[in-house]
Structures are given as C-alpha cells and as structure tokens.
Amino acid sequence: MKNTGLSKLITAGAAMALIGVATAGILPANASTKTTLTVAYPSVYAFDTGPLAAKWWSQVKADFTKIYPNVKVQYIALPGSYQDVVNKLSLLYRSSSTAPDVAEMPSAQIGLWSSSGYLLPMNKYLKTSSWFKDFPKVIQSEGKFNGNIYAVNDGENDSELMYNKTMFKKAGIPVPWKPTTWQDIISAAQKIKKALPNVTPLWLNAGTGSGANGLLQGINNFIVGSSTPTIETKSGKMVVDSPGIKAALGFYQKVYADGLGASESALFSPNAVTDPLTLFKTGKLAMAVGSNYYGGNWTKFINAPYWPQAVATMGVTGLPNEAGTGIASTLAGWDLAIGSHAPDAQMAYNFINVAQAPKNLIDAANWAGWVPPVESDWTLPAYTNFAPPYNADFAKVLPSATETPTSANYSAWVQGMGEATGLFVQNPKTTVSQALSTFENYVTQQLGNSAVTKLK
Length: 456
Description:
By secondary structure, the chain is an alpha/beta fold. The protein folds into two domains: about 210 residues, Periplasmic binding protein-like II (D-Maltodextrin-Binding Protein, domain 2, 3-Layer(aba) Sandwich), CATH 3.40.190.10; about 220 residues, D-Maltodextrin-Binding Protein, domain 2. The chain has 22 helices and twelve strands. Strands 1, 2, 3, 6, 8, 9, 10 and 11 form an eight-stranded mixed beta sheet that branches. A two-stranded antiparallel sheet has the order 4-5. Helix 12 packs across helix 22. The N terminus is likely disordered.
C-alpha cells in the first residue's frame, strides 16, 4: 500500500512536470476521493472568439485532469457581453449552492465581490507560488484588499493610440506619428476630418455601453495621464472632481464638439470596444485609443477580422500624458478567484495553478488579446511572434501603466463617468461643467458624501 501511494505521488509529479506546472503549493489528488470542481468563465467576451475560449478552457481542464484524474471539472459558461458576465456571476454568488469554486472575472469587480464575502483570501497558497512572485508589483496588487489577495491575474489589457498610416499620409501628417501632447491628437483628427470627410477621425469610447472596459480604453487613460491622476485615494474615497478629471472631460468636449468622434449609435453599443477592429479594416476609421488585443484579432489565427495588411497599414504609438513628458495608460485585466464557499479550496487553487502554467498563460495572452502577467513572458517568441509588432509594443507599455481601481465603490464611479462622457456624444454643446456635475451627482448619490472627495 505504501509503494502504491508513492507511485501515485510520482505520477502526479511527473504529470505536473510534463505540462510545466510549478509543484510548490500543490497537493496530489486522493485516489479514493471523488470531487467535482465548478469553474465559471466568460464563454464569449474575454477571449477574442468563443471557440478559442472553449479551446483554452478545454486545454486547462485536460492538463488538470492529467494530475488529478479523480476530480471532475464542471464548467459554467457565462455568455454575453461584459455586463452580462458580471450580472450572471453576481447571481451565482448569491447562493452557496450555485457559487462556483473558481471563476474568471474582470479585475474591476474583484473589490465588489470580495467585500461581499464571495471570495476566499489566497494568501496562504500564494506563499509557495513561483509564478506569483514573477508578477510585477502593480499586478500582484490587483486583487489585494485589506492585506488579503482575493484574485490573481491571468491576462492584462493596456492602451495606446492605433492609427492608419496611409490615411495620416493623405492628411499630411508625418509617419511614424509621435504625438507629445493631447492637442497633437486633436490636431491630427482635425486634419483627417478635412482630408477624408467620410472617415471617422478618432474612436474615443464614451457612454455606459461597455461598462468599465469602455473607461479602460477611454477617459481613464487621460485621467491617469493628467496632473492629478488619482481616481481612488489611499483611504478608499472616490475622486469626483479634480483638475485631472476636468482636463480629461475637456479633451472629450473638444473631440465631440468638433465632430471628430464616432456616432452615438456606434459608441453606445455593447460592442463599442471591438467595433474599431472592423472599422479600421474597412477604411472607415483613422485613429483610436485602442487596446493590446487589436493586433492579435487581425491575425489569420484569430480572424476577428483577418486583415493581413494590418502590419503595413496600422501604426501604434504611446498616448502622451497631459504634461507632454511621457506616456500614460490604464491597466486592467481578467483574474482567477476562489469562491468563499468552495468545499475544497486547496483543489480550487490547484486548478488555478495549472491555469498559470507558462504555456497556458501565453496561449491565453495570444488568444484573448492580453499581456501575460509574468514579466519574463513578455519577450518570449511564442508571445512576441504571434502578433508582431503589437504584442511586444504593448508589453513595453505595461510598466508605465496605472492599475484601474478594483474596489467595491468603483462600479458606481464607472457608471457616473460613463454617463458624463455620453453627454458629449448625445449633445456636442455639453460643457465640461455640465458633464462634471452629472458625474459628481451620480457618484455621490450612490456612495454618499463620506465616500467621495475632491482634489485641488
């Protein structure tokens, strides 16, 4: 019997080594125990295509069952948009009978669900993790609240400016384009509008249709690049007025007052953060505050849409900060968390550990359009050669990026800011003061005076 037990340990260890999973902190499955592990994941939204999401999760499941053959992995697919995923997970978490043992979730929701008692602290498991130690500090902190880590990242998104080099040349704008001020962006959009009247000069996400993702690829990039980049103070208060917020709203006001942005119907769509991919390909868009998943979507492998001319046509450059002294970008992604009611938390962590294997992380980055959270992966050919030059370029931006708040109060802040930016699209005559008032009133009403603050 002892030899049999040792054999099972060796077999489990060999399987872990075979798929490149760190063995620290992992316990082998008990052969006499039959366990079901429930795992919830976005089946459409997080990855570039639904089939790729299914392929990746099947791959992780296969790797996991090689090590734990007596554990049944039961997936809970979450279809629909970003907000659909958030709503469905919220409903699942409300009952211990439906709450998943493991879930992939947008980082912006971690604080809300951890403060509601839905998530389990992972500190004791991560002490022996090799991959978590290789996360940059900013990514390690993504799921941390009150000293506890409730979620770990499995892919990040950051932002830069994407632009059509052919259109820029036609408008008399030198290429490669290197804007150093926000006014440079406005000026380029104005030249595009004059030279190419049938083209949308600038895609700048606005409104509430895309939730936190719309802000991640929109106004938050300007706020974190402003003179007062704070969205949430160290004491946990949400900023509802600051010179930086006013400056960022001022940029929006200029874009939409001058007719440089997209239409209301396009921007208020749930697909607003992905529509630029097709608009660029069809020659209807000149420039966008875009994300790192753009390049991968244009590859033949992803084909969402396939655009072999993208590398020759599309340029990428950093979004300048307000002072013109550097670049700015937001940072947020998707994270894996253990449910507080998980009957076998150790096994739930073991599943996460398998998902964090190097091949799985890089495949996720390529198939979902992410920057992998492990810094050493940023220069590996398996990642950089998938969508050159975009993968490598966006990875370089990540150390300069600012993490999006993940506290429970951020959801109200997101809704308020979405309503404020949407005003400029609905009525181009909207003033900064009007938009700021709408934003401040909404957030304050939702959170209360004690939870908000103003910066000078």
